[in-house]
Amino acid sequence: MTTRYRVEYALKSHRRDQLIEWIKGLLAVPFVLHSQPTAVYQEHSAQLSAVAEGTHQRYADIFLDVENLILDHINHTRSQNPGKSKLKLLVPTVGTFFTPLYLEDAFKYQDRRRCISRRRFVAPSFNDVRLILNTAQLLGIIRSFPSSVELITFDGDLTLYDDGENLTEDNPVIPRITRLLSQGRKVGIVTAAGYTEASKYYARLKGLLDAIHSSTLLTESQKNGLIVMGGESNFLFRYDDSRSQSSSSSSLSPDSAGDNDNNSKLAYVPRKEWLLDEMKIWREDDIKELLDIAESVLRACVSNLNLAVAVLRKDRAVGIYPLAGSKLHREQLEETVLVVQNTIERSSVGSRLPFCAFNGGNDVFVDIGDKSWGVRACQQYFGGIDPARTLHIGDQFLSAGANDFKARRASTTAWISSPAETVQLLDELHELEGH
Ligand code: IMP
Ligand code: MG
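That is the input. Now the predicted structure with magnesium ion docked in place:
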């Protein structure tokens, strides 16, 4: 049993979130003891709701206990002793919490919507717990600060639009993002998609950028609250209304390579204007060396796993993507990510330079830097916004092969599973703020 368990764990730990799995395990006990599907048809509805009420209370108690363990963990972190908290012993992978998580209230909120405690056959699931954690995080920010969240950063693919698609004018997230801007909040799109040309981002984000441009509601300074961070933490663009008309002046410095599109509504921001001090010491020869290693490992995987893909080497990234419309298997993607990540981690340049190897759904990329640097650079660009007042929304939060995971070091986060959930989350924020 032990061996089987360990093998399973070693093979699958990168596909599990330990905190969520642990909470699920705690909830399984009252589910089994109180909600088991005993002859449902014989019970009266009064009995049914009494059982549901009892189960609701037991689940709520568990969430309150976890909420208190997180508070205790926050206190240990503040006193420079995070390793000693009880939560850290129970869930060794647990990281930093920037705010308390109001799990009991979040559970009650989500239970009203999802009727979790009324279920007799399906135990509280990964998705139930994930959504409760998201609500608890929103409450954590709202209750910690009178003006709530100041900066919201969004991942692109699967968070704002479907994988590989564009943000078109009919996307329901557009009015939600303009609402955030109209409230004076800052918005960053922190995507792995790495292009040096503003026109490429315009092509992907056209619906949103056009809507901001034509908005009569937003002031100029509110419109300037939008930035795009590409290649995880490599290329910064700011919204620029003046790039909506054709103009002939376009002086190209090496640092603004390709930024020659005057209709893109985005302006390239030179690195010297936004790099964090720690990023200024990243050396070009290290960047080349790391990408060389990544490229040779990717090529070895292509041959070893017989993948029908092309290799793409860029300025700050290298990746593989399938040829003409074919689809890679999950196993091929995960194996490639784990091999490349392990090899770079074991190299000496891998200890000098941050990088992010991830499974993009149907491609694998290795980027220089990661979203923790991307989110931090956005915070600094807007004058130093606190991590606790920043929320990063993304779909990739598994520990290996996922790029939003790294943002947890820089800000609070919400883990969504589709663009529709992003819309729901933004509406939830609006509602919980009492609008
Ligand atoms: P995200 O979900 O917005 O972070 O976008 C990730 C996707 O962007 C990847 O799966 C790739 O398809 C695409 N992409 C394009 N260029 C790059 C790059 O330079 N690095 C990583 N991903 C890239
Ligand atoms: Mg994504």
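DSSP finds 15 helices and eleven strands in the chain.
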